Amino acid sequence: MSKMQADVRYNVTEFSIQGLSGITGLQLPIFGTLLLLYLLIIFGNMTIFVVVLGNPYLHSPMYILLMNLSVIDIAYTSNILPNLLNMLLTQHRTISFLGCMIQMYFFIALASIEVILLAAMAYDRYVAICQPLRYGSLMSLRYCAGLAACAWVIGLLDPTGHVVIISKLSFCASHHINHFFCDVPPLLKISCSDTYDVETMNYVVGTLLTLTTFLLTLISYVIIISTILKIKSAEGRYKAFSTCSSHLTCISTFYGTIICLYMRPASSYYPEQDKFFALLYIVLVPLLNPIIYSLKNQEFKNGVKKLLHKMT
To answer: What is the third-level CATH fold of 3-311?
Structure first.
């Protein structure tokens, strides 16, 4: 790296974020829509957290993992949407270098925690359906707490290398991020350093974590579905499938958006397409999770009723 590049790198104090493109004259309607969706995300996921926490009979592995998932959904949406809403309302599009690195760190960390939690929830459904007599021993509350703790520890450690390496890159070509938040691909796009090492690490580590958890989830559901199909009565098959349909829907939405975003090299980065999928990932997944998990879940509905009864 040349001295000039090093000087430029250390002089970087802030980035300019483009935000959403092609919305001239639509800032206020989009602001209102995103604000409403953000409030719904907070309300829906906080409801899950409070209902599970306030009802002892819901303190089972499935609901403990779901409570952790609701915290993740609130956190990573709050990591991005408030800043985007501020940009839409005030047109203030700058973010400090440190703020950008922090936002990127938490985005990667929270996504990593979520993929591990989803795999743990798939394992929980596998044990409940395929090993029901051993559920108490294989999926105890202590074991469930260990899975949740591992998800948080691994997730919080995972992006450390990414952030350290990216923070040392030179950004002498441009300080303009063609996105609505600090993500890895648009940052690499504007760097004038050699990004091969960070691209390789990003692809290998990201693929390893995502692929490993995805395969564990997939294997769990292959066994679950084959077990359900062996149930003779239609009523029994429906009852068994209904216990995992919510989680299966959540997984399909999550992995569908994340694969479109990150499972390809940085050279195939298309800003407008990525903004669309990123917005789906940040808004759609945490918005749908409370709806998916609560509408078909009679235990959770009963928990809401009991909580409301206590409050009145």
So the answer is: Rhopdopsin 7-helix transmembrane proteins (1.20.1070)
* Placement of tokens 């800003």 in the chain: 271
Give pLDDT, residue 1: 44
The predicted pLDDT at position 184 comes to 85
Task: Name the strands in the sheet holding 14-17, side by side, starting at the edge strand that comes first in the sequence.
Answer: 94-96, 14-17, 176-177
Residue segments in the chain with a per-residue pLDDT below the cut of 50: 1-10
| Backbone Cα Rg of the chain | 21
Which of these, 36, 224, 26, lies nearest to 123 by C-alpha position? 224
pLDDT at 262: 63
Q: Give me the pLDDT at residue 269, please.
A: 56
Domain ranges of the chain: 3-311
